[in-house]
Amino acid sequence: MESVLSFASRNKAFVIACALVSAVGGGYLVTRISFDANILRLLPRQSESVRAFERFLQDFGSLDHLYLEFDADDGIGEHGEFVDAYVDALRNAPEIESVDSQLFEPGKDWAYLSDRELYLLGEDGAKEALSRFRAPRVNEEVLHARELLSMPSEQIKAMVRQDPLGLLTMLRDRMGAEKGVAAFDPGQEGYVSRDGRSRLVIVKPKGQPFDNDFCKKLFASLNALEAKVRQQIREAGDSADAVRVQAAGAYRVSLEAEQLIRREGIINALGSLTLLVLVVLSVFRTPWVLLFGFLPLAIAAVVTLGINGAVHGTLSPATSGFTGMLFGLGIDGVVIIYVRYLEERRSGLSTDLAIRRVSGTASSVVLAQLTTAATFLALLLIDFPTLQDLGSLVGLGIICCLILTILLMPALLPAHAGSRENNSATAERLSGFVIRSARQIVWASVVATLALFAAATTLRLDTSIERLQAQTQGATLEREVATRFSLPQDVLIALYEDADINALLGVQERLQQSLASRAPSVPASGISFLLPSASRQQRVSEAISAAGITAAEARQNIQAAAKSAGFREDTFEPFFGRVSTLLDPAERISYDGLMAHGLDSVVSRFLTHRGGQYEGVVYLYPPPAADIGALEAIVRDVDPRLRLTGVPVIDHDLRLQFLPQFTRAIAVGFAAVAVLIYAVFRSVRHVLLALLPTLMGFVWSAGILALARISLDLFSLFAAVTFIGIAVDYGIYLLFRYEIERSADMGQVLARTGPAIVIACVTALIGFGTLANSSYAPLHVFGLVSLVTLSCCLVASIVTLPALVIELERWSSAR
User: Fold this and answer.
1) What CATH superfamily classification does 2-39+253-468+651-814 receive?
2) How much is the pTM?
3) Which end is more exposed in the chain, N or C (fewer Cβ atoms within 10 Å of the end residue's Cβ)?
């Protein structure tokens, strides 16, 4: 270390030039970074439920849809012209692939299904429907149709002419019970909310939701489109200002999350940097410290981000606080080395000799920074991509910062040093207090540890992935839209794949039957409500044949009932035009038939066909307190190839995986730190002494957080593992100066090194504590946890640890 410092001091120009070249290279690579708001990056990559969820989103999911809500205080039905004009413009927009504005919109030939609706009702439903073709039921249904005509709706009148026996009502009730299609009001046009104020239009753009360039282009196009439509409506003499248009869905969430990441990253970096500058200047009172203190940090941040840009190319929301963390941790080494340099210069040594004498402290900084980097890099072993990103960024950043600090500081250190002994009085008082009260401090620490350990058992943990999602206005609106339009939330998904479509349909039908018998509180829907299996259709065909109703008989019976009810003779001609197909036992519903009649947008939500394989999904709608484990068992019993996924399943798996993953993270973190400490001290005793303040600080902070009713999420809890490497630094600085350099007794070491350790902790608290102001919930909680944990570890390191060392020496001398 002495040789390295001397080389850097003698070759200032070369060292500075190399650092600047690194900064330029890193700056170029930074331009390759993009921001990924995909929530799936927050989830374990090896989880079967997560992989199944990714597959679902790729083939069926709603992430590639944009939800447009049209809202008007006086009712959206009064502004149909505006919505229709907007929808027409959407269909012609180059960024839009398809638009779903209403169930019975042009291009969807629902007559294909209505002509075969007996097959959709199932065997029992078909028998009930067939009974309506003969007296007395035919008379009852025609009279009910007469009552419906009293409603002032052209759509109702058209529906009655097509369906005098109420078969469509039977079908709608079956679909509503199965949740296959959201219940709709035939008296309204489009997907209208229950209060009539809002209408929903579902749009599928051509690009991906996490392609930020496409999202920017998409919303710019939507803004221009809306302005153009409003102008057209005004020119037509109608009001266009009464309608509000809002977008929800992953496209908006992605765009807002990217803006959030950029803003949070800039604010965090500037905020922590500003506070660090103020603290360092107030302590050292020289502008030189800004040059040799922050130049290594700035270059390290740029180089690290550049390497990340070259290797990964993306940042997630949780890594937006990287710069503040790096500044707060990297400045530690600068402070510790500079304080020691000032100490040696004040003793009368020349600049060169002072730099050489700093080598011992520089070695302790290397050990301390490596332990910190090791715990961050240990996050790479945890199956959470965002934590892996954070671990690689900060771990690599600390290593870069360490190298640059060791090389740049000797090249930039000022030849003159101030004569004022910073905080000496305070340090002497602290040292005197610890020496006088060592025994009381040790026992008080033991009592506090036991008491707070008991409190820590009540610490709350929320493992849901919702806590990890960036909360933006778009995300809030998406939840409101789901509630307003009764869209399913927290749905479970059962995926199945087979080359034989009938085998797939059979498995799905068995699953729905099993759920109906074993979990009746969990409704389920699959493609079978549109496409029954061949065996189910065969049973309906047999029921039609057994009923023996011909088209001529049906016409005769309905006309007689209509005449009795007062209808005109030709009222039900539209129905008679399709009754022969309806009663034909040879007719069937097929996948190809559905696709050929424009129903692909509906079918694709339940069934896809790619590469010779059919993949189907069954949606399960469990109540909030449903037993996910029991549902997984039901799914496995039906067919082991069925895969159950969805947000509730992922949350369930996260709860099960939490303890093993956290135990592994803690074990790896402590093992890595212990090995590094032992490599330097060559003593198990010193390893335990160095780790003890960290263990105590963790217990104290857990108890305090529990008493403060702060709920931890998975990110903040796992990221807190990195505090093992951060907090152990404080004990290392003391023990290295005391045991390796042996320059003084523990009281003198504390007096000389204590202020530097306090400053180092304060800078770390600034770097992490600024995260407490983050609007991204995991970073906010992580900031709070860091403030409490690092403060507790500091007290344990500069009060409890030296007191324990002093007591152990007294006990050893007494023997």
Assistant:
1) Multidrug efflux transporter AcrB transmembrane domain (1.20.1640.10)
2) 0.69
3) C
